[in-house]
Amino acid sequence: MNPEEAYLLLASADFGEGFTVLLYKTAGGKYFACERTTWGKTERIMTLQKSQAMKTYREFPIHHTEFEVAFPEAELEQTTG
């Protein structure tokens, strides 16, 4: 199995000096953020609730995936809630 098929890159932010944070969604619909350094080393992985992931997505300047694809349930919640 190709690991990249198990998760989707949603958004990212480069904080300078080789520090980047990437926001992902798993094939199972879970969200996590990954802190990386210039050297490609993963410093920390943080699991996120959907609401936290949506907030992070909106705050990050670079979007790799459309909001509707990243959070398809959000449209339903807004129209029914």
Main sheet?
A: 5 strands, antiparallel
Unreliable runs, pLDDT <50, ≥5 residues? none
The total beta strand count reads 5
Order of helices and strands: EEEEHEHH
Radius of gyration: 13 Å
Helix content: 25-40%
State the end-to-end distance: 38 Å
The domain count comes to 1
Structural class: alpha+beta
Mean pLDDT: 86
In DSSP terms, counting alpha (H) and pi (I) runs of 4 or more, how many helices?
3
Characterize the overall form. Answer: globular
Largest beta sheet: strand ordering: 4-3-2-1-5
Q: Name the beta content range.
A: 35-45%
What order do the helices and strands come in, and which of them pair?
Blueprint lengths: L6 E8 L4 E8 L4 E7 L4 E7 L1 H10 L2 E2 L3 H4 L1 H9 L1
Antiparallel strand pairs: 1-2, 1-5, 2-3, 3-4
Describe this structure as you would to a colleague.
The chain has one domain (3-80). With 81 residues, the protein is α+β, with helices and mostly antiparallel strands. The termini are far apart. It has three helices and five strands, in the order ββββαβαα.
Jot down its keywords.
alpha+beta; 5-stranded antiparallel β-sheet; 3 helices
What's a quick, concise take on this entry?
This protein is an alpha+beta fold and 81 residues long. It is built from three helices and five strands. A five-stranded antiparallel sheet has the order 4-3-2-1-5.
